[in-house]
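Dear colleague,

Following up on yesterday's call, I've attached the two folding results inline so they're easy to grep. Please treat them as preliminary; we haven't cross-checked anything against experimental data yet. The first protein's sequence and structure tokens come first.
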Amino acid sequence: MTTKHTVTHHSSGLTPGKYIVPFILITTLFFMWGFARSILDVLNKHFQESMDISVVRSTMIQATTYVAYALMALPAGIFITRYGYRRGVVLGLLLFAAGAFGFIPGDIAGSFGIFLASLFVIGCGLAVLETAANPYAAELGEPSKAASRLNLAQSFNGLGCILGPVLVGGFLFSGDGGSSVALPYAIMGCVVLLVAFLFSRVNLPEIGNDAGTGDDNPRHSLTGNISVLWRSRRFRYGVMALFCYEIAEIAINSLFINYVTDDGWMDKVTATWVLSFGALGLFLLARIAGSAVMNYVKAEKVLLFCAIMTVAGASLVALNLGALSKTGLFMCYAFEAIMFPTIFAITISGCASATKIASSFLMMTPLGGAVGTFLMGWVAATTDISVSFIVPAMAYAAVLIYAISAMCGKLKN
């Protein structure tokens, strides 16, 4: 039987030196799912044209992927609680690879349904990876620096988001538009299998406050932990805030190319570059900056300021004020960057033995992306693309209410 090593928190640094290697390894996963999720935003426009489908129907891409998150997150938490982080990561990677290879028969058959089924499997894999990696990165060090540490790890998610649209979008939108969507996914599947093999050969230390909880009457532990979690105001409000954040973030990404090409501001190829190096590059830099700032300023204060700015940015876009609205679009990317890791870290703080199950519920929240993308697509189809930004504006407003509650000390239990 393999001996489990537990993580203890005695270092004043962001991450204790002896846990630098596990932190680096787990951070590679943030890059991978950032890359995979960002490609979805390119697929919307690609399938609209290559398969002649509507904007509303193309949002099934996000819906399918994020419904998979909602369905898989709790089983993922149960699996990780029982078998540990390393096996959870390997399972997630194998599902990710299987879904990526599913694009090959989808491309041969020219079937949107097969593509959606493949994206569902990928979504299941990403749900397992995120359920494992987010709490693991947050807990690898002093609890007081969890938000800063998770923001740093999530910065690599931002790097993946930058490279995904420009590499895959540049490939799909080049030439006469006949590029095969199966090729980039096949390459991705091979890379993911290699990473799965590497993780199958390494040992990841288990988080101290979770160690062993999966072996002692897991059935009782599961029901008990869920009951404790949902009695906590901090946890309930955190789940709702993260759901609303996902509505805004994923919906804006999904329709970014539609927005900037709608009035001839950019062509498709330029739009993919601007999405990658402009919007998502700004997102990455803001997340790194946020990680640094939170070493000196309380995470709740940073979250409050950023929530105010995102509400302002999305509202400017919805008002259709020309250049001012375009500025508002990039404000959303800059100030939403710290929201996911910050809300996540605040929510799981103090969860102790329920951390993995708490993470699984939090990783159901990307379903909000499916809801937000559909709502934005519907509003855009019935009015115009600018007005549709009222959807993320309202979602950011919900995060603002959460941030105010956190600052006022209403999330103590």
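Below is the second protein, in the same order (sequence, then structure):
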Amino acid sequence: MSECRILFSKTGTARYISHLDLMRTMQRVFIRAGLALKHTEGFNPHPCMTFALPLSVGSGSVCELMDTVLLEDVPFESVPALLNAAMPAGIEVLQAYAPSRKFRELFWLDTQTTLVYDAGVPEGGPEALEALFARQELIINKKSKRGYGDVDIAPCIYSARLERTGENTLTLYARLTAQTPAMNPENLVNAIRQKLPALAPDFAGHQRLEVYDKLMNIFR
């Protein structure tokens, strides 16, 4: 029996698979790959699988992490090929290895948000948006489990920069807190809509690029 951490990507049409469906998918893929997993005990046992930072539906990622326990000693270097042979399109295992750190040590994540403007990028848009995300205080109204309320998201933004990547698109690269508190990049788009409505995009898509610990070291 060995603990195993899986690094995988979730892109393309797989972005629209919910977290619950992702868990089911992973369970079935391990079965099809012939890799037996440790299960919980009790009346309704299920595979022991822990995901670091569950993704929102519609968001992509190239740095997702999942922990599980293999019942047999399988060489980690052979695990990606075994899983990918049974994996649906859009999900790819990049690496399998023995974990040495706890998910609670995750602190920062890099995100890429594509902002699409049907009528073209507004003049001065990148500069105005960078100034918005550089504010010392950035209070937005957002939904929580207790309902809607005002929240200052500025402490959750380490950095943000904009690039014009097409006549109709801007790309926003941001480093955000990963947890305690978790910062969803959709909150950046909400900040644009609430504070600079003239620069609100017609569409926004998100992707995670990398995860880090508190000292900005890549987390694996």
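For the second protein, one point worth flagging: The mean pLDDT is 95.

Best wishes,
A.L.
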